[in-house]
């Protein structure tokens, strides 16, 4: 990645071996505390390396939590697996391996988009019932027999190819018109690190793997936070999610699409922080 000298990432990079791969993880120590209130693992989306979560990790660390944000395999500075390996079971096993390698006792897990699907799969396949909090932010509900993911494969490829060829902030803004300038510039910087096979196979998984298979088995304490204007979790899907797992609340952040905290940071933080505080008083 080519660093933008005007964008400082507060997370401290660490390389961790887990599930047969080397993973780059950003660590945000708990501010003002010798011991963190709780450990938080933050899982980003399909084309979002760990650095893109910096603006979220900072305010969480400022509340006394230690935050860990990994580059998902095939993105950022994490390794690319030698032959595919981008199923939800692969991603969930990575998280389990990272949690074990870092020695994190029952961390809070927050996932956005594909990261939310990974978080749910990890909770169901590896986490067990004993978890302090699971936060799923606008997970793709597409899958077999369901409406396709609303962003096309060609759109993902166009963004990726433009970034690798060299593009501008204004060109990125046409895909994300609500984003702050810093986050647009950061995406411009880190998107070229995403492996094309990782993106394409993960995108295919949005249509071949059913999020509801894991969602039905998610147990409290948990919450699903969607953007009120999100085409990824539209109102009909939100109602289906609530019916399929009534034990877990489904809440909406106003004036936000799929990129919920980027679109409405204050609205998202207002939903998130009280739940973090309750999970680790």
What does this molecule look like?
The structure is a single chain. The chain has helices at 54-62, 88-102, 114-127, 153-165, 169-173, 181-190, 196-208, 211-215, 235-244, 260-263, 265-279; strands at 12-18, 21-28, 39-43, 66-70, 108-112, 134-137, 222-227, 250-253. The chain is α/β, with parallel strands linked by helices and 281 residues long. The protein has an eight-stranded mixed beta sheet, sandwiched between helices. α2 packs across α3 (114-127) and α4 (153-165) packs antiparallel against α7 (196-208). It is globular and about 45 Å long. The model has no long low-confidence stretch (mean pLDDT 95). Residues 41-264 form the AB hydrolase-1 domain. It comes from Marinibaculum pumilum. This is Alpha/beta fold hydrolase.
Spatial strand order of the main sheet? 1-2-4-3-5-6-7-8
CATH-defined architecture: 3-Layer(aba) Sandwich
CATH superfamily: Alpha/Beta hydrolase fold, catalytic domain
- DSSP helix count? 11
Distance between the termini: 38 Å
Major β-sheet profile: 8 strands, mixed
Share of helix, binned = 40-55%
CATH class: Alpha Beta
User: How many beta-strand segments?
Assistant: 8
- Model regions low in confidence, pLDDT < 50 over at least 5 residues: none
Question: Structural class per helix/strand content?
Answer: alpha/beta
Radius of gyration: 17 Å
Classify the beta-strand content into a percent band: 15-25%
Order of helices and strands: EEEHEHEHEHHHHHEHEHH
Overall pLDDT metric: 95
State the CATH topology: Rossmann fold
What does the overall shape look like? Answer: globular
């Amino acid at each position: 990645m080519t660093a933008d000298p005007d964008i400082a990432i507060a997370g401290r990079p660490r390389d961790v071996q887990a599930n047969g791969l080397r993973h780059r993880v950003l660590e945000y120590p708990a501010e003002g505390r010798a011991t963190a209130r709780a450990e938080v693992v933050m899982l980003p989306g399909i084309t979002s390396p760990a650095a893109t979560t910096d603006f979220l990790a900072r305010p969480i660390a400022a509340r006394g939590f230690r935050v860990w944000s990994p580059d998902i395999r095939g993105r950022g500075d994490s390794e690319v697996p030698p032959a595919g390996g981008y199923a939800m079971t692969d991603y969930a096993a990575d998280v389990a391996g990272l949690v074990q390698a870092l020695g994190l006792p029952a961390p809070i897990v927050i996932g956005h988009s594909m990261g939310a699907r990974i978080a749910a799969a990890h909770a169901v396949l590896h986490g067990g019932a004993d978890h302090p909090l699971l936060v799923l932010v606008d997970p793709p509900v597409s899958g077999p027999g369901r409406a396709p993911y609303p962003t096309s494969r060609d759109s993902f490829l166009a963004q990726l190819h433009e970034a690798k060829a060299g593009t501008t902030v204004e060109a990125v803004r046409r895909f994300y018109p609500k984003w702050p300038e810093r986050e647009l510039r950061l995406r411009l910087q880190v998107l070229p690190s995403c492996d094309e096979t990782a993106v394409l196979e993960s995108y295919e998984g949005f249509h071949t793997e059913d999020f509801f298979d894991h969602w039905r088995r998610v147990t409290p304490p948990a919450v699903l936070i969607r953007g009120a204007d999100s085409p990824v979790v539209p109102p009909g899907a939100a109602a289906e999610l609530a019916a399929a797992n009534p034990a877990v609340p489904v809440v909406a952040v106003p004036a936000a699409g799929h990129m919920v905290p980027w679109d409405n940071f204050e609205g998202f933080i207002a939903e998130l922080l009280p739940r973090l505080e309750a999970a680790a008083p």
